Amino acid sequence: MSKAPNLSAGFGHVETWVFDLDNTLYPADCDLFAQIDRRMGEFIAQSFGLSFDAAHALRQRYYAEHGTTLAGLVRLHDISPDAFLDYVHDIDLDPVTSAPELAAAIDALPGRKFVFTNGSRKHAEAVVSRLGLINHFADIFDIHALDYIHPKPTREAYDRFVRAHGIAAPRAAMFDDLPHNLETAHTLGMTTVLVDCRSTDRPEHQTSAGWTELPAHIHHRTEALAPFLAAIGAALVGDTDRTETTAFQAQFCLT
Length: 255
Fold this sequence. Notes:
With 255 residues, the chain is an alpha/beta fold. It has two domains: 7-30 and 97-251, Rossmann fold (3-Layer(aba) Sandwich); 32-88, DNA polymerase, domain 1, CATH 1.10.150.450. The chain has helices at residues 7-11, 32-48, 52-66, 69-77, 81-88, 100-108, 121-131, 155-165, 181-187, 203-206, 225-236, 240-251; strands at residues 16-19, 112-116, 139-141, 172-176, 191-195, 220-222. It has a six-stranded parallel β-sheet, with helices on both faces. Strand 2, helix 7 and strand 3 (139-141) form a beta-alpha-beta unit. Helix 2 crosses helix 3, helix 3 (52-66) packs across helix 4 (69-77) and helix 6 runs parallel beside helix 11. It is globular, with a radius of gyration of 18 Å. Mean pLDDT is 89; it is low at 240-255.
């Protein structure tokens, strides 16, 4: 293996830190998406009088064709987005627990921090509060701000986000668990970090399982967000000796 990279060089230009919410700020093994997926299927089944299997197939089709299930429902069926979001996010958040190490690592990063999510602000605030991070972000940019039909990874979503907050994309870093969400971020000039969740069985997460090197649109990859951010923060203040091993382990997980 090669020597761990210089994290201060990789992130020294960053003044804005952007984090996806689900499976990024909290570990994928919390498995909140299993609950959300089930409730999306229930909502569709109840709305259209479908079996759960048929509703699940429709959910998957809309996700693939429109970026989110909600975007398809709004565009094609004029479903109330608030009714959908309130239903699917009415889940048990007990698996999400306080994350003091992550809070300290985020707090140590210089510049502004944002949550950028295809979920609702209400859901994001509930999750971030349980993590103990509610006061660590300048704002939560959610699906409401995207008119429900322009989710990540569309260019419209990213353009709205950077305009709303006056963000210089080449001086921003984007953290997300979905590789395809980082393609647009890369196009805009953002430094991209994949929070790798290959341990789940979601097809979107399994795309990284066979990689022998990172795709061009992903600059860094980690399976452990808190130590990775701590390594960046320490490197930016010159404490590279203490973090060299942690940085290497957190960043390079390819086998």
